[in-house]
Design goal:
The chain has 191 residues and is mainly alpha-helical. It has helices spanning 2-5, 11-32, 38-59, 64-93, 96-124, 134-175, 180-190.
């Protein structure tokens, strides 16, 4: 929609504006982020994205040129926050070792999504006008909104179960009787 209403030479200005907006939104997000727990924070971000994307889309016919710019700048900033919050949720909910293994998977899925999304967009533009593709984005955001509570609960349970198993193993090591060699080594260290 942006290139339908703006010249190509305005793209650098749009990217500069989008970058500045993303930086400002990120600073505000960091200041606010600790006031909500993980689940509420992620759900609030998704609801904000869905509602604001819908409002921007519905306002598009009123001022196409301004709304195309607003959509591009706003959606870029909010999308970056969703991405960062997804990584944050992963590292907060999972044990660090498992989170580190999940990061490459998320990156691969994101790359695959970008490639498939480009193809889907090309096909979608044959059926729907560019300005109406925002509904596709909104539908894609509704799914994680409906699943985030269940996902966080499952990941936390999984992490808690692993933590309990690790604690049991450590306490088992601490309470087991020492072998003869370990007792001799310990006695030698005391003297």
């Amino acid at each position: 929609a942006f290139l339908q209403t703006h010249e190509v030479k305005t793209l650098p200005l749009m990217f500069l504006g989008s970058s500045a907006f993303t930086a400002m939104v990120s600073i505000v997000w960091v200041a606010v982020v600790e006031r909500l727990d993980l689940q509420r924070r992620f759900m609030a971000l998704l609801v904000t994205a869905i509602a604001s994307f819908a409002v921007l889309h519905l306002a598009y016919p009123l001022a196409p040129k301004a709304m195309a710019l607003a959509q591009l700048v706003w959606c870029t900033g909010i999308s970056q926050l969703i991405l960062v919050q997804t990584w944050n949720m992963t590292s907060a909910v999972l044990p660090s070792r498992q989170a580190k293994r999940l990061f490459p998977v998320l990156a691969a899925v994101s790359t695959l999504g970008a490639a498939l999304g480009g193809g889907a967009l090309t096909l979608g533009l044959k059926v729907v006008e560019a300005q109406h593709m925002m509904w596709f984005v909104i539908v894609l955001l509704v799914y994680p909104l409906t699943q985030v509570k269940k996902l966080i609960k499952a990941l936390q349970w999984s992490g808690d179960e692993r933590d309990s198993a690790a604690e049991a193993q450590l306490s088992g090591l601490a309470s087991r009787p020492l072998s003869r060699k370990e007792a001799q080594d310990q006695a030698a260290n005391v003297k």
